[in-house]
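Case 248 in the screening queue. Each case pairs one protein sequence with one candidate compound; here the compound is S-adenosyl-L-homocysteine. For every case the pipeline is the same: read the inputs, emit a complex structure as tokens, and attach any notable structural observations.

Predict complex for case 248.
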Amino acid sequence: MKLVSVPMVMISRFLALMALLVLGSGLGPAPAQEADPYQPLRERMVTQQLKARGISDPRVLAAMGKVPRHLFVPERLAPLAYGDHPLPIGSGQTISQPYIVALMTEWAEIKAGDKVLEVGTGSGYQAAVLAELTDKVFSIDIRPELAEKAAGLLQSLNYRQVKVKSGDGYQGWPQEAPFDAILVTAAASRVPPALETQLREGGRLVIPLGPAGAVQTLTRFRKTQGKLQEDSRLPVAFVPLVQPEEGK
Ligand code: SAH
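Case 248 output:
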């Protein structure tokens, strides 16, 4: 008897669940917009990769839970978009691992209305995450094809508050300076002097520092009394911030 009763319970539970699903589909309120099949993966990413590792700023977690990362990677890689790793985005470049995007964003301490510069637009994903936190995001990429593609995607996803330009990030964006936060998403051997100049007093600069092709140190500086003070670090691996003649 016991052997039979267990499957019976399971079958009746299954039937009850099916009935609920069938009823639910006919009676529930119409969804406001088409369901995003990647939503469960995105939620799992936030819980297992971000919260579990100590990302705690609710605004950052909400932004990471909202931006459709799968649209920022090549279509064939979309099923891998929420995995715990970087992915190629073309032109030999990569979109960073979700945790690194979240950490850089958290370290940048962005408040609504802050003016933010990103050096290294790439896919536009980090810029979209920043745009969830403030309406003034400026992003530069040295590779015109990446800048153009990212600008088009951000526009189509309604991230109109992001301004993208193609140019050399070592020079920053002097016309828009000063910035409350600057994020550099490619590795440099030292802080580009123009970026230091363009950071506002009290502003945050997050940048991977170290040699190309080796482990670098993601470093957060705060500008205090006109000087950069380092206050956080983490070992990372980024593609290099190239000089203009190398970016062709
Ligand atoms: N933040 C991006 C990933 C950046 S990958 C994202 O969310 O997808 C690093 C990017 O830095 C590449 O797109 C590369 O073209 C760009 N880059 C490299 N050197 C640069 C420079 N000197 N100025 C501006 N962008 C640069």
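Case 248 observations:
- Residues 2-27 form the longest helix (26 residues).
- Residues 89, 93-96, 119-120, 122-123, 125-126, 140-143, 146, 168-170, 185-186, 239, 241-242, 247 surround S-adenosyl-L-homocysteine (CB under 6 Å).
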